[in-house]
Amino acid sequence: MLIYPLKLSVAGPLMATGLQTNINGIDAPFLRDHAGNFIIPGTQLRGILRHVLEAMAEAAPHLDIPEKIALLFGRPSGSAGSGGFESGAKDWEPDRGHAVISDLIANPIKNVSKTMTRIAVDDFSGSVKPGHLQILEQPVGLGKVVEFHGTLSLQLPEDRASEYLNWLAKALALVPAIGAHKSAGFGRVVDATLGQTAQNRTAETPFDSKTIEAVAEADAAEVIITFDGPFLISAETWNSNLLSGKSRVPGSAIKAVIAQQMGAKDPQHKLHEVLADVIISEFRPSKPAGSRGKTLPLSYFAVQGMDELVDAFDFDPEEWAADGAVVSFQPDWKDDNIAVASMKTQLNDRYEEQRHVRTRTAISKNGTAATGQLFTYSSVIPGEYVWKGIIRRGSASRKAFLALLCCLPERLEAFGKTRTGASLTIAPLATKSRLTAKGRVRIVLETAACLHTPADLHGFSDVTDPSERLRRQYQAYFANALRQAGVQDAPSFEDDSLQLLFFAQQRRVGGYLAARYPVTDEGYYPWLLTVEGSAFEFVLPDGYEQALQTFLAAGLPLPVGFSGHRRRWQGNPFVPENGYGEIRMMSDC
């Protein structure tokens, strides 16, 4: 990652519209970052530079500028509006750009002009339109010049970066104004400077050899990620134009950033298959001195007036309700429930989430905001938290695992839609005592798991009771998973001998992921996941203790009905190597 200094000098008035302000009566607040600094968003400058380069491409088609634009800013993946979900998985593969522009932060502004007003003029009378007075927060006074500083990062080798840096500098020099209301004279760019000397973060010293050797010997590492700023990862669409990122980071997101930064996305790269074979867990927010949090089982229920949760595997909630108790499971819990707070403290899952919200627009061909293309995203503010997870050797050889560790950088760049950077620390994973469980065992899903194929949903169709049909489907999965673990000389057993009980929820995952990774060859079909917290109790057959130990280390395997590429990340985003299907014993709190 090559990082170049970037400076814009802008004459006021300037308007980068935000959502929050401390001043009453403001119609349009000025944009601030999560720390309260006045900023010009890097995404806006990135969009303007792309627009300028596209205009240059139209004026000079012989210069092959479109390919340069694609490399710098990426290409859009497929969408339901262009080709539809039936257009093929290849159309949905992402092609991310290699240019990242940070937010540009204003130098400290003195004697801030707090507000200014704008009006709309009636086309017929030439007077002010009634009700069309707008009050803007205005930190940059009329004619005052303020410097905004940020960085441009290029994920390119140095011998290629200079050419693309030159094109970006040309585009930057052609930017006359920035922000909103440019046609009214706002945001005039007085000077724009793009440094030519880069800091090379990828050249920073990797982890010391003793740490790497200790991790390789343990076959696993405890990993701590410290994010530089707000991040938007695994975004969910709440409606057509609102994206909200998750606080837990899936292993697939970590793998994607490592692969992009190391060049291992190329199938010919020596670490391409190694990254596919190692297991990278979900990363969870934790206090620096705390341990990685655990997921609260769905089998727990609360009883009004009690300060502890009760496990439904041990006590029948219907009996409590019959005696007049007010019983509730997770979907009905309130934020002030003392019993829930107490259990989350035991599981080290008391995360106090903070959010940073921004609104963005697409840029039209004439350089203004595109009509109907406004959207808002809610990103996670790291605050005082770090993110903790585990990297395991998985099915990679110890030599290949060691090679990956030797190349692993102390910095990871460009996470998620906010392209946030992060620092990395690793240490050998402490070994745990061997599992001694026998008889009935209870496990809980720490992360969501893919436990059913579409065909499995039609199994046991002769069973009319839906809960019993689902119980048998889960029982069949666990029976096959135990057999699939390949325990030598283990006695055979019948599915019904597991006597499985469960408290679980399921969710369907469609849209983009189902289009990019088709779950069947017969058209569009969503994936079915069993959600985190789902809990299972069953009789562990004699001789299968090693199989359960394998599940605890490597996650629950995919169902036997998946074959070929759907057992690898190329055809299934929910493989155990990406952190899905992680389990723990329910007694392990």
Please tell me about this protein's structure.
The structure is a single chain. The mean pLDDT is 88. Helices cover 22% and strands 26% of the residues. Helix 1 (42-59) crosses helix 3 (158-173). The protein folds into 4 domains: 2-200, no CATH class; 204-292 and 353-428, no CATH class; 300-346, no CATH class; 439-585, Alpha-Beta Plaits. The strands form 8 sheets. Strands 1, 2, 5, 6, 9, 10 and 11 form a 7-stranded antiparallel beta sheet that branches. It has 589 residues and is an alpha+beta fold.
The Cα radius of gyration reads 27 Å
Secondary-structure-derived class = alpha+beta
Largest sheet features: 7 strands, antiparallel
The outline comes out as globular
- Counting H and I runs of at least 4 residues, what is the number of helices? 12
Strand content: 25-35%
Mean pLDDT, to the nearest integer, reads: 88
Low-pLDDT windows of residues? none
The percentage helix is 10-25%
Q: How many domains?
A: 4
Distance between the termini: 40 Å
Q: Please count the beta strands (DSSP E, at least 2 residues each).
A: 30
Top keywords for this entry?
single chain, 589 residues, alpha+beta, 7-stranded antiparallel sheet, 6-stranded antiparallel sheet, 30 strands, globular
Topology:
Layout: E1 2-11, E2 39-40, H1 42-59, H2 65-73, E3 74-75, E4 95-96, E5 99-101, E6 104-106, E7 115-121, E8 128-137, E9 145-154, H3 158-173, E10 188-194, E11 199-200, H4 209-218, E12 220-227, E13 236-239, E14 242-244, H5 251-262, H6 272-277, E15 279-280, E16 284-286, E17 300-303, E18 310-311, H7 317-322, E19 327-328, H8 338-346, E20 355-363, E21 369-380, E22 386-392, H9 398-407, E23 411-415, E24 420-428, E25 439-445, H10 466-484, E26 501-503, E27 506-509, H11 511-516, E28 527-530, E29 535-540, H12 545-554, E30 583-585
Helix pairs in contact: 1-2, 1-3, 4-9
